[in-house]
UniProtKB/TrEMBL annotation:
Residues 1-27 form the signal peptide. It comes from the Eukaryota. PROSITE patterns: PROTEIN_KINASE_ATP, PROTEIN_KINASE_DOM, PROTEIN_KINASE_ST. Keywords: ATP-binding, Cell membrane, Glycoprotein, Kinase, Leucine-rich repeat, Membrane, Nucleotide-binding, Receptor, Repeat, Serine/threonine-protein kinase, Signal, Transferase, Transmembrane, Transmembrane helix. Its EC number is 2.7.11.1. Residues 336-568 form the Protein kinase domain. This is non-specific serine/threonine protein kinase. It catalyses: L-seryl-[protein] + ATP = O-phospho-L-seryl-[protein] + ADP + H(+); L-threonyl-[protein] + ATP = O-phospho-L-threonyl-[protein] + ADP + H(+). Its main location: membrane. The lineage of its organism: Eukaryota, Viridiplantae, Streptophyta, Embryophyta, Tracheophyta. It comes from Zea mays (Maize).
Amino acid sequence: MAEAEPRRRWAVWALLLLLHPAALVLANTEGDALHSLRTNLNDPNNVLQSWDPTLVNPCTWFHVTCNNDNSVIRVESFTLFTVILEMLHYQELWFRNLDSSKTCSTCENISGMTAHIRNILFIILITYMKIRELYSNNISGIIPSGFGNLTNLVSLDLYLNNFTGPIPDSLGKLLKLRFLRLNNNSLSGSIPKSLTAITALQVLDLSNNNLSGEVPSTGSFSLFTPISFANNPNLCGPGTTKPCPGAPPFSPPPYNPTPPVQSPGSSSSSTGAIAGGVAAGTALLFAVPAISFAYWQRRKPQEHFFEVPAEEDPEVHLGQLKRFSLRELQVATDGFCNKNILGRGGFGKVYKGRLADGSLVAVKRLKEERTPGGELQFQTEVEMISMAVHRNLLRLRGFCMTPTERLLVYPYMANGSVASRLRDRAPAEPPLDWQTRRRIALGSARGLSYLHDHCDPKIIHRDVKAANILLDEDFEAVVGDFGLAKLMDYKDTHVTTAVRGTIGHIAPEYLSTGKSSEKTDVFGYGITLLELITGQRAFDLACLANDDDVMLLDWVINYAISSVQIAT
């Protein structure tokens, strides 16, 4: 982290210097420089309204992150993306004139910009721009083809903007790209075949545009379902539900059984029938005891595992999510040994595991809840969960499915959950400081906002609590256990199913009606904030011994009322 901060700080200042060269001489504080940046940007939504030059410390401004020394180390996505878009208009400057032997035809337009600074800026941006969340910024125009030169990109999110025109063919050069989401724009034209060369691509969403033509079916595109291309009426091909003109309709090949050849001799037919009957009777004689024994064994609770192929829909593909075998996960967790249990919850147990490549994972073994068509439903829901990718959401790494087992595989979070850091930490571990708690609150809010506002269909968590907010190696909040409850379609206002959640975190209206919505999660988030502030459990029966409220919310309300009474 200490090494990363200087690089981030350099990135911020390099961007400032490019857009406002006068800052080289005039700006003597970070606040002045940031305000100068604001004056050079088009900000139709007043996102940067809080950048008030009368406030001495810019660390209080939105979209600005500082370190413990109150020095600016990061300007968040809106600002950086706007700057980058403006800089992409200078593609000759960026991509053609880095060689000092060539002249720069546009350099005179940017006073004070030396070739040295341009080269540093380019290197910084190539390094910095690995994951960029650029969605929902009301940005219009075409997608710059210069993005194709940012070959270190692993995620490009431009959805929920007003982009028009074609998808740049140059994006096919982003061979490290794993997530490409251009949905909910007004893009037109065909899908470039160059995108099929991106073999690392895991998540693709081009839905809700005006794209046309045939959807490529080779390369990584063979892995994606019609969800990736929905609501583009003029698209056709195997990746959609609409065949292209002149192509045969989508249907399985007809079954044409070969008629049996009648032998001329009836005696041989009779002999074959008798022999077949004897064989069938013998098989049945041995099968009845075997079936009875299997049924008796099935009724006994047991921990034996059998690798049986599950029902699998050939039309449901899961990108490049790894499908683990049950044997792999058995070996990784020492046969789901109790000593490897990381936690227990409403959806099942979580085990720590080590895969064959040495990487640590958390394996969630879901409780068995069989429903008709459960295998296909499970596949569909796993695909939806895998498409929710955000730095504050726990990434799904893979899954395992058999007729008797459902398992999800996630990255292992070495710092555990917020709940464990608040209440179950080892004596040698320091408590969470207030700055870290603030970051946790903001990060978990961003993760929940993504589930509610940027997933289609939206995902209602229904069990937001400190135990479901995990901490990565940098103590960044990562929301887990989302998508395990039934997904909510964006057209619905609630989901009517069994009430899921944890006592103390369940919203009263959800408990009484069984209808959940975003407000259900907001209530749980509010209780989580109280846990962060007080360090106490949301529900604690041990409080009865001291005649205290067992519900944290009730305790806080009563404390606030008594404080007001004392003050008056």
